[in-house]
Design a protein that fits this description.
The complex is a heterodimer of chains A (about 450) and B (about 550). With about 450 residues, chain A is an alpha/beta fold. Chain A has three domains: about 25-160, Rossmann fold (3-Layer(aba) Sandwich), CATH 3.40.50.1980; about 170-290, Nitrogenase molybdenum iron protein domain (Rossmann fold), CATH 3.40.50; about 290-455, Nitrogenase molybdenum iron protein domain (Rossmann fold, 3-Layer(aba) Sandwich), CATH 3.40.50.1980. In chain A, about 45% of the residues lie in helices and about 15% in strands. In chain A, the strands form three sheets. Chain A has a five-stranded parallel β-sheet, with helices on both faces. The longest helix of chain A has 23 residues, at about 430-450. The radius of gyration of chain A is 23 Å and the shape is globular. Chain B has a domain at about 60-190: Rossmann fold. Chain B has 23 helices and 14 strands. Chain B has helices spanning about 10-20, 25-30, 60-70, 85-90, 120-125, 130-145, 155-160, 165-175, 190-205, 230-245, 255-260, 275-290, 300-315, 315-345, 360-370, 385, 400, 420-430, 455-465, 475-485, 505-520, 530, 535-545, and strands at about 35, 75-80, 115, 145-150, 180, 220-225, 245-250, 270, 290-295, 350-355, 370-375, 450, 470-475, 490. In chain B, the strands form three sheets. Chain B has a six-stranded mixed β-sheet, with helices on both faces. In chain B, strands 3-2-4-5 form a four-stranded parallel β-sheet, with helices on both faces. In chain B, α9 runs parallel beside α12 (about 275-290). The longest helix of chain B has 29 residues, at about 315-345. The chains are: A alpha/beta (about 450), B alpha/beta (about 550). The interface between A and B is large, with 86 and 93 residues. β1 (about 15-20) of chain A pairs antiparallel with β3 of chain B, so a sheet runs across the interface.
């Protein structure tokens, strides 16, 4: 067994996390910063942070992930990191010529109390930031929240640093897509285009972390929301914030700073969440929902009706990030599946509350936990006590899946051992079909593998 | 390019690279970029601070300590004291294979687990020692491990949590669990290298020598600095087995706490990765009298050479004969495979920027493929890894190195036992064994080869453009950067999830993988056909008409 020491008996833990269902803030900030065109993310801390974050993002996307580090030493940890950051800003503009640098802090620089606002102001005063270039920043102490919090904080940093208000409203809707894949961001743009809804979306990592092989390395790929587009978001008529954990703070800031009203929606994963998104976008942009969407939606519903015998009543264990798990749980319930065990390392009371509400009718006995010690070890123990038919989560789930012989669908971050998430969305109606295809695929592979030769089916 | 042809002079390239840097940085980087002249002793500046913002390959001290040295040991719980990320990122990402055997008391394997105190803001403000104690207790209650290692991350040192005191207290409380700490905060030192040193120190202090049980083999060795990435250690063990050489302990591939505890009973230490483990070799020699020499099991010829050195050391005709038999059994098929691969690899160019020894060792494998290494450098090497240990007395100890503890080791009053006389060691030196020595990378590189320490992204781009190598070797962060430039990159940390590459079988795996990478045809189809065609407007016009 791969996880041979995981006992069925559950002992309460108050201090020890085993096999976490989260990671720390800065990686989320780095990912969000990549969704701005011409941006070079910068990690203000030890070299290891930057190296680890670049590595995990690279393994997930199989694409270049560029970022700088302040390379703290013991001396800078004692005397403060200002000199390192000032030098880093100057060097990055001189050597790598980005349009902007997006700085995030780390547990190290937060603990010693480096003031990013003051350091960046000083860098500007000292002429380290060339004319027409920008430096934005956010605080991402690793000992608060999770990687999702870091993503949210950088989204807020982007608004704070780049959004402007000219006084003339622009007939466009801001979309904060939340921490989703470049494929999902591309799909959201397609949905908006199909509806003829003018949008500004940021961050947008499509064409940044899913770049084509051209034989030429581009440090700043074609994609990413432009500084100009983000600037205009202060003049938009509305903001749709997808996922309260990743996007609500930035939407709030656009509201409080520039009076752009906002609505928080779930990330459009699955049937019901996509319905709400499509309607909300149509309302916000004052456009009709095109007929083509009835067909798109109908195709998803058609697959569900066709295949429901394989889905009905199946128990599912899930781990990942709240903004994904909430609509995913709702989708599973729409499929008449039974969300049974759910964990997320990301803290916040509204998560369990929301899951309990969703499951109240169809899966009232759901085990759900988030925050500290809500880890994959806990999930595995629950599975040993109440087995499930399907496990969904990031790549680390495969150790449980193999030990327990449970069909496994990779979903979330990071996915280190399969491709596809960069290219094929799981949002929208078509994304729903892709999720179904994956779920049905692992179910049917197991049926095929386990069927006695007399019961082996050709048609399923 | 054949090996006898001189490499191109990269002086202009170096100038061009430096011209982009501000003057002060250019001066600093110039000292870390050396055009090799085999006739000269040249200083290669290394193990110095990375310039902020320059985009480095380097990681941190914690990574070197927990990730590299302690990561491969299966029956210790490596508890990371800090916010969650540090433990998360070091969770299974280094491909240390291990074979725990069947489940049971001797079948412990915690490598697939990640343990953390997941420090929160109140722990930062009020201190995290209480939570750490509680976490150690919980780990013990659930898993009953033989040992728990506690790893400090950046904030731990800053807020003053004393992981050593907590470890001592918990060790005494638990009774049958060896609990010890590592002050491996990420900001210490200038790279992973400091973490290796800290790991060596604490293993030596808390584990090595705890069990005096004598090994049963006749030729008892430790293999130092071999981490069983992709199963390298398994292949080396297979060869040792065939030769009748008994490995008491490997530091630290496929290792156990029990093996570390007995490692002082071996009669010889073989050092693979000099950078990460030379401290252990020196301490074992000083305290217990075990000599060490440098070996390299990367490359078939190097493997044969290493085995013969072991035979020389033990001065046993039976062992020597057995080693020759094994080499005679293994080497011909490896050579045949190399000859086959050379049809596609001969004369091709390689570049290696990785590690603290791999960038040196892998040049051997490329030589066996008839390939030339035009440029190479370490991510976290020191001057001795480039220029050889002869420069050790001349290395200036700077503030960053001074902060890393240097253990004062003396001969153990009871257990010190010199395994070989000075005269014997001198004789072996004369026979070419690198006794207590490592000659470094530089001496094995061609004239005009460009040696670059702690290469930056900008330098990487320029080097690729200048040399247009057929293959580039580095790590995951560089992988797709270089491949997007149309050049295949071989990861030499993770082996691109392949391997083993050590020993005889490993050499054949490497030949096959490099042959595959150089023969993959998709690189020729990068350009869309309509962009590849000559665009002649007149022809277009005719066609349209």
């Amino acid at each position: 067994m791969l996880l041979r020491h995981t006992p069925k008996e559950i002992k309460e833990r108050k201090a020890l996390t085993i096999n976490p269902a989260k990671t720390c803030q800065p990686v989320g900030a780095m990912y969000a910063a990549l969704g701005v065109h011409g941006c070079l993310p910068h990690s203000h801390g030890s070299q290891g942070c930057c190296s680890y974050h670049r590595s995990v993002l690279t393994r997930h996307y199989k694409d270049p992930i560029m970022a700088g580090t302040s390379s703290f030493t013991e001396g800078s940890s004692v005397f403060g990191g200002q000199a390192n950051l000032m030098q880093a800003i100057a060097n990055m503009f001189t050597i790598y010529n980005p349009d902007l640098i997006a700085i995030h802090s780390t547990c190290l620089s937060e603990t010693i109390g480096d003031d990013l606002n003051q350091i960046v102001s000083k860098a500007i005063e000292d002429g380290k930031v060339p004319e027409g270039k920008n430096v934005i920043y956010c605080n991402t102490p690793s000992y608060v929240g999770s990687h999702v919090t870091g993503f949210a904080n950088m989204c807020t940093g982007i608004v704070k640093g780049l959004a402007k208000h000219t006084g003339t409203a622009i007939d466009q809707v801001n979309i904060l897509p939340g921490w989703v894949e470049p494929s999902d961001m591309r799909e959201i743009k397609r949905i908006a285009a199909e509806m003829s809804a003018p949008i500004v979306m940021f961050p947008d990592t499509s064409d940044v972390v899913d770049t084509p092989q051209t034989g030429e390395f581009k440090m700043y790929p074609a994609g990413g929301a432009t500084v100009e587009a983000i600037a205009s978001s202060g003049d938009s008529i509305k903001t749709l914030a997808l996922g309260s954990y990743a996007s609500e703070d930035a939407a709030k800031l656009l509201d409080s700073k520039f009076k752009v009203p906002y609505e928080v929606l779930d990330i459009p994963v699955g049937l019901s969440a996509t319905d709400r998104f499509v309607e909300a976008l149509a309302n916000a942009a004052k456009v009709p929902v095109p007929a083509s969407f009835v067909a798109e939606r109908g195709r998803l519903v058609d697959v569900i009706t066709d295949m429901s015998q394989y889905l009905y009543g199946k128990k599912v264990a899930l781990f990942g990030d709240p903004d994904q798990l909430i609509p995913l749980t709702e989708f599973l319930l729409d499929l008449n599946m039974i969300p049974t065990h759910i964990v997320s390392g990301t803290p916040g009371k509204k998560f369990t509350k929301k899951i309990m509400e969703l499951c109240a009718e169809k899966a009232p006995n759901v085990n759900v936990k988030n925050g500290q010690q809500a880890d994959i070890f806990q999930l595995h123990q629950w599975m040993k006590n109440e087995p499930v038919d399907l496990l969904m989560g990031n790549t680390y789930g495969k150790y449980i899946a193999r030990d327990e012989d449970v069909p496994f669908v990779r979903y979330g971050f990071p996915i280190l051992d399969r491709i596809g998430h960069s290219y094929f969305p799981t949002v929208g109606y078509t994304g729903g079909i892709r999720l179904l295809e994956k779920i049905l695929g692992v179910f049917m592979d197991k049926i095929d593998r386990d069927a006695d030769s007399t019961k082996f089916e050709l048609v399923m | 390019m054949s090996a006898d042809k001189k490499l191109p002079d990269p002086s202009k390239l170096k100038e061009e690279i430096l011209s982009k840097y501000p003057a002060k940085i250019a001066r600093k980087r110039a000292k870390s970029m050396v055009i090799n002249d085999t006739k000269l002793d040249q200083e290669i500046q290394s193990n110095v601070r990375t310039i902020p913002g320059i985009i480095t390959q380097r990681g941190c001290t914690y990574a070197g300590c927990k990730g590299v040295v302690l990561g491969p040991t299966r029956d210790i719980i490596n508890l990371v004291h800090g916010p969650i990320g540090c433990s998360f990122y070091a969770w299974l990402t280094r491909r240390n294979q291990t074979d725990p055997g069947p489940e049971g008391p001797d079948g412990e394997n915690f490598i697939n687990y990640s343990f953390s105190t997941d420090m929160q803001d109140d722990n930062i403000v009020f201190g995290g020692e209480k939570k750490l104690k509680q976490a150690i207790q919980e780990a013990y209650d659930i898993f009953k491990p033989k040992a728990i290692g506690v790893f400090s991350t950046c904030p731990v040192g800053l807020i003053g949590d004393d992981v050593h005191a907590v470890s001592r207290e918990m060790k005494a409380k638990l009774g049958d669990c060896n609990v010890f700490g590592f002050s491996c905060e990420g900001y210490k030192g200038v790279s992973q290298s400091a973490g290796h040193h800290i790991a060596n120190n604490q293993l030596f202090r808390h584990v090595v020598g705890n069990d005096d049980t004598k090994p049963e083999g006749k030729f008892n060795i430790n293999l130092l600095g071999e981490y069983n990435i992709g199963g390298d250690g398994f292949e080396i063990d297979r060869i040792f087995n065939a030769c009748g050489i008994n490995v008491v302990c490997t530091f630290s591939g496929n290792s156990t706490i029990g093996a570390f505890e007995k490692s002082h009973t071996a009669d010889l230490n073989l050092v693979m990765c000099h950078r990460s483990i030379n401290y252990m070799a020196e301490m074992l020699e000083t305290k217990f009298g075990i000599p060490w020499f440098k070996v390299n099991f990367i490359g078939a010829e190097s493997t044969a050479k290493a085995l013969r050195k072991i035979g020389e050391y033990f001065e046993d005709d039976g062992l020597k004969a057995r080693i020759e038999e094994v080499i005679a059994e293994e080497l011909p098929k490896v050579k045949a495979r190399a000859a086959e691969a050379r049809k596609r690899t001969e004369g091709k160019l390689a570049m290696l920027f990785v590690g603290g020894s791999r960038a040196h060792h892998y040049q051997e494998l490329f030589k066996e493929l008839g390939m030339e290494t035009v440029s190479a450098g370490y991510e976290f090497g020191h001057r001795d890894d480039y220029e050889g240990r002869k420069v050790l007395p001349t290395i200036k100890v700077d503030a960053d190195s001074r902060n890393i503890e240097e253990l004062k080791i003396e001969a153990d009053p009871e257990r010190f036992n010199p395994r070989a006389s000075d005269i014997k060691l001198e004789t072996l030196k004369e026979k070419g064994l690198e006794i207590s020595d490592y000659r470094g990378m530089k001496t094995d590189m061609a004239d005009n080869a460009l040696i670059v320490d702690d290469i930056t992204h900008w330098e990487t781009e320029k080097l690729v453009d200048f040399y247009k190598p057929d293959i580039f070797c580095a790590g995951i962060k560089e992988k797709y950067v270089v491949q997007k430039s149309g050049i295949p990159l071989k990861q030499l940390h993770s082996y691109d999830y392949g391997g083993p590459y050590a020993g005889f079988e490993g050499a054949m795996n490497f030949y096959a993988d490099i042959e595959m990478m150089l023969s993959t045809t998709i690189w020729k189809k990068i350009k869309a056909p309509w962009l590849s065609k000559e665009t002649d407007p007149s022809i277009c016009a005719e066609y349209v008409a």
